[in-house]
Amino acid sequence: MTTDKIFKCNAKHLRAGTASVRQYFITSAHTDGKMLDAEYREMVRRDLPALLAMSQENMASIILASWGVELRDEEVLHAILRPDAYTEVLEVRGEIVGYYSVEMLNGKAFINAIQVKKGHQGKGYGTAMMERVENLARSRGIGLIDLWVQLTNRQAREFYRHRGYRTMSRQGNNYLMRKDLL
Ligand SMILES: CC(C)(COP(=O)(O)OP(=O)(O)OC[C@H]1O[C@@H](n2cnc3c(N)ncnc32)[C@H](O)[C@@H]1OP(=O)(O)O)[C@@H](O)C(=O)NCCC(=O)NCCS
Q1: Which helix (H) or strand (E) holds 31?
Q2: Angle, vertex CA 117, rays to CA 74 and CA 23, nearest 5
Q3: Which of 4, 87, 139, 174 has its CA 20 to 30 A from that of 133?
Q4: Could you tell me if 142 and 104 are in contact, meaning their C-beta atoms sit under 8 angstroms apart?
Q5: How many CB atoms lie within 10 A of CB 49?
Q6: 100-112: per-residue pLDDT in tens?
Q7: For residues 161 and 155, what is the distance between their CA atoms, to the nearest angstrom?
Q8: Dihedral over Cα of 172, 78, 107, 23: its sign
Q9: Structural domains of the chain, ranges and CATH numbers in brackets
Q10: The dihedral sign for the CA sequence 123, 129, 134, 136
């Protein structure tokens, strides 16, 4: 099966609202059309410990600085296990190097989470995942994509800004950022 067919298959499941059906299709990761040494697959439950560990390592200090509280695993699980969330992991030779979770509802996409493991950041994986989410959304005719980012998360804010996301509003110590896709 070609990458395109696999991609359409994932998108078809999303359209049909059956994205929670386990899919074992694997898709190569690209950024700006360049193939990376990484592959996507839909998250399965046994991935959760790795995703929680990655999120804690990346986000605990940011959440503490922004909100003065500990990041609880329950909050990460709440984001990625929502009934309408579609979550994929990015693997390099069997190691999970990143993941994203997106919801596409009512003509709008919302990125619940995007994380690249420390030690693998700055290699283009985050860009590849953003492009993938945006292409998925476009394939469903979705015209805009939103996300929250913490005030203190300067690196991520710059990352989104470079990819065309604009700051729309502020809620507490979070900014709402948005990109028009169409
Ligand atoms: C934000 C994040 C998802 C970006 O993913 P990434 O794989 O590091 O991103 P990329 O390699 O595609 O691009 C990173 C950008 O930072 C630059 N960069 C250079 N060295 C870098 C490094 N060591 N680490 C991170 N970024 C680096 C890249 O050149 C690139 O610049 P650009 O925006 O001008 O293109 C990732 O850094 C991350 O997981 N951060 C911690 C978790 C987080 O904050 N998530 C978002 C929550 S809202």
Answers
A1: strand 27-31
A2: 70
A3: 174
A4: yes
A5: 10
A6: 999 999 999 999 9
A7: 10
A8: positive
A9: 3-142 (3.40.630.30)
A10: positive
Residues 97-152: tens digit of each pLDDT: 999 999 999 999 999 999 999 999 999 999 999 999 999 999 999 999 999 999 99
| Residue with token string 């992991």 | 89
Q: How close is the Cα of 126 to the center of ligand 1, in Å? A: 6
| Other CB atoms within 10 A of residue 60 CB | 12
How far, in Å, is the centroid of ligand 1 from the Cα of 128?
11
**Residue from 37, 150, 159, 174 to probe ligand 1 pocket by mutation (most atoms less than 8 Å from CB):** 159
Dihedral, 42, 44, 48, 50 alpha carbons, nearest 10: -60
The Å distance, Cα 127 to ligand 1 centre, comes to 8
CA-nearest residue for atom 33, ligand 1, is 159
Nearest CA to ligand 1 atom 21: 122
